[in-house]
Request: fold
Amino acid sequence: MHTAKTPLVELKNITTQFGSQLVHQNLNLTIERGERLALVGGSGSGKSVLLSEVALLKTPQAGSVTLFGQATAQLSTTKLIQLRKKMGIMFQQGAMFTSLNLLENIMLPLREHQRLPEQFLKELALLKIKLVGLPASAATKLPQELSGGMLKRAAVARALALDPNLLLLDEPTAGLDPASASAFDDLLLELHATLDLTLILVTHDLDSLWRVSNQVAFLGEKQVLCKAPMEELTMHSHPAIKHYFANTRAAGARTRGTGANQG
Amino acid sequence: MQEKRQRPSLLLTDGNYLLYGDWTTAYLKQWLDLQPSLAARPKELQLITKAMDTNGAMAFLHIFGDQPSHWPKGLTATQKQLLDLVLKERETTIPEPARLNWLADIGFRVSQFSGHGAQLLSFIGQLFTALYTLLCNPRQFKFKLFLDVIQRDGLHAVPIIALLAFLLGAVVAWQGGLQLKTYGANVFIVELVALTHLRELGPLITAILVAGRSGSAYAAQLATMNINQEILALRSLGQNPFDWLILPKLLGLVIALPLLTLLADLAGLLGGSLVAHLQLEISPTLFWQRLSKEVSISHFFIGMIKAPVFAIIIVSVGCMQGMLARGGADAVGVRTTRSVVQAIFLVIIIDAIFSVIFSDAGW
Reply:
């Protein structure tokens, strides 16, 4: 369907403004199919805003968003809904529906998608729960009964409900203990490898940056300052990028990350 | 052409059965619909498919079964890999939520009920402790929040309460006037309107409106704060949540509700006198003269004395429901509903008790 040459996501001259505060100015970013792109940058650099613009949840003041080779500005509502179904988004706090249990949370988009037999729907939802590494017994639990790490996995399971091509994650490992965060990174890599996914993740977790991403886009000065693999980015001479990575935590993450890659 | 190849379809060409289509989420329904014709399937089946995702793989397994030997030819290596993965993770028994047997269920409900009772007592206890601490240390009082309550729940409620009380007074006068007119007892409309309105309707309608307007807001606010752990945050900062969230509301409404009741009384009497003038030809001058001569001021005070009691009920029910909220968005709705229903219920019950006491005492 998509040749290797058409990028999956293409942002051109994006300008975003909140009141008088300019967040993005003529920002350009291209994401190829199969990439694992991390969006990084200081607080307030507009990473999450950019993510919601890719997810078609927010429209930039100027510029064009092209998804799956389709310019989104002129699309009809039905086309937009079709596009949204090709994307899964995991929100920072999970945003699971608290009045539904985990199975029902995942079944909701599936049930609205097509009229399918109830048992088949349940099996599909349960498969998603198993795929993200949760036990089947978690299916009947309410979101508020799950631990932080399980909730993140559950949120991914719901994002995967319709088998999207593009998975957007807002700070997936924030608030997890190191062991859970590392297991979550493994999960993302595994899902990427088996399900033909393109990942875009906003993250501050340097371990994730080294392990999960193969491309990193650095946001600063209302632009994408640099898009490169992590090794190149850390060598970059821009002062903002230097400052971001010039600390002991970054160095530690690097040795851990490269070590894990070899092992 | 390409679109046609993506859609599931079974074709017979040159004696070979060809199964076209993408095994993707978009075509789940179409695949399941094809199942009957595939069940009586021809021996040699050739798949021509470009894409497969996990949902599609589930549909595939649903149709062709778990045995790879029964699968049609033409799967690519990655598709086989995906099918293996899905086969490994797939579970067909859906876990059901654990249900208690009837005896355990009764036990659970009883213990839940007594738990609620304990929570109620604990809330009342905490409320009194907070009040006592405040009396010992009045400087702790959050005066600004108190003024906020007076403004939001008192001042802003003035138009709606005045309007409704006016209409209620007019309606009572109208219905009563129709009866009095037949006996020629027109002038007694003054006593009728004054007694019903000052003693009962004024305080009641005010309390009911405020329960719906402010009590629900208290419950929703506290429930949301509770679920967001904001109340725990207040505690952790060494603050008593009662000082911040409940006492200003309690004292504010204890002041505001009597004032609103006074307003409702006046508006009701105004409505009554207007109808008396139009229907029974009793001039406003006569109405107000007779009111001051024949209707004892004690009726007014009997009505007014209930107002602070109603205020305490509304605030404590609303705040308690809010403080007890656990869970998610659902809980906020449930607690808000409960706060309004319980507050109105209690207000009417207490009003009835007051009536019995006052009439026994001969007031």
